[in-house]
Structures
1.
Amino acid sequence: MRVVVQQEPFDFGAEAARFADGRHDMGAVVTFTGIVRDLAGGDLDAMEIEHYPGMTEKALTAIAEEAVARWSLGDALVIHRYGRMAPGERIMMVATAAPHRKDAFAAAEFLMDYLKSRAPFWKKEHGRAGAGWVAAKDEDEAALTRW
């Protein structure tokens, strides 16, 4: 299991290949990559993400460990960036490996729902109309109720 919180961009292809290579005991590898999405009308200049070093890694590690145990995963990977990113840049990646696809998909969705709603990151959008913090969305919180 690996959890990485970093400012610099990551190479999705290289990370996915490194995670999947040599998996003779796993029948499924699921990957997901989140991308900074532009605002309606193309008004987003940048997304800025802040976090508390140490606290963030500890929280992400705990949730990844929960996913590994809950779905009997062979492995899990969480990469999340912080700092200033432009629309189209990769912001995060989740990968899970399990003997069967159902567990790999469920664990990946669980991790993504957690990252979207509960991970200790704070997002600020910088656009043509100014800057503002991104508020939590009810649908993101509701997604956690299925877990």
Note: Helices lie at 12-20, 55-70, 101-117, 138-143.
2.
Amino acid sequence: MSTDRIRRHAVDEGLSTLGDRIGFVAGLVLAVSAFTGWYTGTGEGVTVSVLGWHSGTLGKLVFVCGVVVVALVVLREFGIALPATVPESLVSITVGVLATIFVLVRLISIPDDFFFAGRGVGIWISLAGAIGVIAAGLLQASDEMS
């Protein structure tokens, strides 16, 4: 199959491929997870939660990574594809790896401002979304090869 034929086939199918559906959902989860509690701590009768967005630049970059993945899928749904020299699966995998690195940095190293807090459920959701983006990119690559 030629590259142009693969691109046309991928554009015609829309969200019917498994890789696109997983990419859309994982990208959406990744973007929304930046607004969930990454760190939580308890005090004297008070529970404090720190959103990923407020954890610094990496929290904001996780949001941007999620938006990029969702935008790629939506643009392809509207018939706008990347140039043939830049496979969308490679872009998805790269963005997923970057998001995974960003989340792992925040998972391993809690910012000093939040010394009182432990890891919350939101950071685990972010990690799952980032790994889901990588899986979606791998599925998209397998669809491009067949």
Note: Helices lie at 3-13, 18-33, 57-77, 88-108, 121-145.
